[in-house]
Structure formats: C-alpha cells, structure tokens
Amino acid sequence: MDRPNAIADETVPALPRGVKFREDKARSRFVLLGPERIFEADAIATEILKRVDGKASFKAILTDLTQTFTADEATIRPDVEAFLTDLANKQMVSL
Amino acid sequence: MSGSHVDLQADRVAPPRPQPPLGLLAEVTHRCPLRCTYCSNPLQLDPKSVELDTETWKRVFSEAAELGVIHLHMSGGEPTARRDIVELMRHAAEVGLYTNLITSGIGVSDAQLDALIEAGCDHIQLSMQGADAAITEAVGGYRGGYDKKQAFADAVVARGVPLTLNAVIHRMNIHQVPAMIDKAVAFGAKRLEIAHTQYYGWALKNRAQLMPARADVDRTIDEVESARERLKGTLVIDAVFPDYYARYPKLCNGGWGTRTFSVTPSGKILPCHAAETITHLDFWNVRDRSLAETWYDGPAFNAYRGTGWMQEPCASCERKTVDYGGCRCQALALTGDAAATDPVCIKSPRHAELGALATMEAAVCDPGPAVYRGFRIGQETERR
C-alpha cells in the first residue's frame, strides 16, 4: 500500500543502505542510485537530496530550504513531502 | 584518447556520437558451480586459462568509471570463483562505480561475504531457480543448492546489504511464481526480478525444454501485477516477459551500443552479452583497446547503432526508434540475418512462424532431457 504523503516534523529522512546520491560527472548532473535504478535529480530534487543526510529532521530540511531559497514553508512543504514519499515508496529513501 | 575518435568520425558518415554507457556487465569468469539449463552464457565457455588477470580487470573498471559507467554488474559464471574477487570489488568501489554482485550464492563463505561487503559491495543479486529444493536442484544441476542459497540469503540480509532475487522463469518453474514471490518476502529481499527466459546460449539450446505455454505466461503477468500492488513498500518486483509470444520486440539492452555493454572473461568487449553469436562482427579486446575507443568507434558497436543499418520493414517503420528493430542476436538466430527484423515483431514475415513454434514446443508433453551448462558441450546431459 502507498503510504500517506504527510511526513512528521521529527522524521529523519535517510538514504537506505544500497542507495547513493552522487555526482555524475560524465553527464554534469546528480543522480540517486539504487540497484538497477538511476534517478536523475533535477535542480530542486538535488537541493532536497543534498540535505537528506540521515541526521537532519524533516523540519530542519524544510527550514534550510525555505531560508536558502527565501520560500514560504507552507508552499513548499507539500511538494517536498510528495517527493520524499514517492522515493520512499520506491525504497530509495527511508522515512 | 578523446582526440582520436573525433578525427575518425570527421571522415565518415556516422550516426550522432552516442551518449556514454550507463552500465557494464563484467563477466569475470565463466566458472560456476551451477549448471543451469537456462544460462545465457555462450555454449563455448571461456576456460580459466584465458581469463583476464587482476590488473587488467582493475584497469577495465577504472576506464569504465572514467567513461561514465554508473552501475557495474560483477557477474559470470560465478564471480566469487575468482580468488581476487575482493580485490576487484574494492577497486571498483574506489573508482566510484555502484557495485552489484550477481551470484549463485553457492560456495560463498561468511568470511568471503564479509570481505566483499567491507570492500564496498553495494548490492547483491542472488539467483533463484525455484521455490523448493526439488525444482531448484533440478534446474541448477547442483544437489544441496537450495539450502545453501537460503543460508546465503539469510547471511546477506543479516548484514544489511540490499538483496535482489533473480528468478529466471520457464516451463519447469512457471507454476511456482507466486511461491517465489512469497519466498522473496520471507528471505527479506528488497527486490525480485521475475525474468522469463530469454533464448540465448544454453537457453536457446534448451528452448524446447524451457518454453512455457502461453496461458501460463498470461497467468504470471496477472500474478505479478497483483503482488506488486499488495507488496508496495515491501518488495519491488521487476518483470521481463517472454518475447516469443509478444507482438513487438524488446528494445535490446536499451538499444545496441546505447546504454550498456559487456566484457567477457577473456576480455572481449561486446554490445550485449550474447553478441558473440553474431560471428561476422569484429569484437575488440580490452587487452588491445580502451573501453572508450571501443564504445565510440568499435566496429561491432557501430554495426547496429541507430537506424542506418535497417532493412524493410524496419527502415520505414514508425516504431523504428522505439524498439530499433528488436534484438540483433535473435534476428540472426531465428532468421539467419542479423540485420533482419526481429521475428518477434508482428511486421516480420517470420512472426507467425515464431508464435507457432513456441506454442508447439510448449505443447509437447515430454520434450526430453535438457542439456546442462558445462565446459564440454553435450557431455552433461541428464534427466530433467
């Protein structure tokens, strides 16, 4: 079953073992890698994934994003939640 | 080296320069304790005496990373049969490749597994021949294999390394697809590949023994669909369906010379692991050539890249950049012409014949014994 989109503030998103986020120099981009999986991160995805370090809480990631990009948290929160939940359903992020 | 291929391409009409490859299948050895009748390795296996040495494989992995390869699939044969497998794994991880060990799980000790993980193995793919000992051991030709595989899967999961099970499906185990899905969950696997047999190498030789009936194939499609929905978040299921019953051919490996390539135990650089069956192609070897010059300029890679090589009905087909005419190895094996339309395609004049052949083979009650994979062809036939 798909999990609901809402993510609690204190949840700490992390990359599960076997999932790597790294620069793909040959193609000038960042990629999220799993077994047989290559997820090409666009500019926004890259900014989110760079902050998924297994230490920062979801709230801390949101705060960092809103400060860095002078965005409104209420506006970006649903998008970040949907993005991370989708990756969690694909086992590319753990929540 | 980048200067040289630019010059070469200036002098001829060539397709646009391809993107760098994403994946490398490194068949580090053909030695294997299992003798699976569905093996896609060539009938003529490379003996140990011609295998690349440690330093050459390390150079290959360095060149692959430099070229832009992301996933390295360390396979064979049984890759852990090489005594230097830990050193190779360490090097591949150090140069930044995502490392996938493709193994039978047989003969891998806990100590060797620990060393491979410590060396940087990112992911392990374990082959699964059946959901019980009887089928597993009949297909793999190895007594006691089932218990060893189970123990290996437990050891991998206990160490926290993500595990994929790869189940190759055919007539002998197609009734066990739901049981294999359950088994994958019980093992703690993150991912399961339900891969219907592709008919190359030993599998082509044993096609009459392996070809499932159409109705059984259709049933597994439904079984996989419902399991995917039920197990979302627990188990990812990737499925490859058999193409003899299809209407359109598969896009071979993401397209010839487009996404991935292989290196054989003796160092041949191939657009796909079955490409050696196209004997008129000139395959370069890592002993003489770099991966980069081979990928961009190797004659075998350029032979079927793009659409310039196509004949009718492919040349004027609206799907020609969708499936690129299907599989070249299959076209050769089934029509005698590697540039023909893959007969899986409904537009091929041979399409009806292919479906009829599969239906007929699947309908035979007792197709006789399959030939087990081995270094001496035909000497290891046993009762199925």
Summarize the structure.
By secondary structure, chain A is of the alpha+beta class.
Describe the structure.
The complex is a heterodimer of chains A (95) and B (384). Chain A is α+β, with helices and mostly antiparallel strands. Chain A has one domain (20-89): Arc Repressor Mutant, subunit A (Orthogonal Bundle), CATH 1.10.10. Chain A has helices spanning 43-50, 58-68, 73-89, and strands spanning 20-24, 29-34, 37-41. Chain A has a 3-stranded antiparallel beta sheet. In chain A, helix 2 crosses helix 3. The longest helix of chain A has 17 residues, at 73-89. The radius of gyration of chain A is 13 Å and the shape is globular. The model of chain A has no long low-confidence stretch (mean pLDDT 92). With 384 residues, chain B is an alpha/beta fold. Chain B contains 14 helices and 9 strands. Chain B has helices at 2-10, 54-67, 85-94, 110-119, 133-140, 145-158, 177-187, 201-205, 207-210, 214-230, 291-297, 299-303, 328-335, 351-363; strands at residues 23-27, 71-75, 98-103, 123-128, 163-169, 191-196, 236-240, 260-263, 269-270. Chain B has a 9-stranded mixed beta sheet. In chain B, helix 1 packs parallel to helix 11 and helix 2 runs parallel beside helix 3 (85-94). The longest helix of chain B has 17 residues, at 214-230. The termini of chain B are far apart.
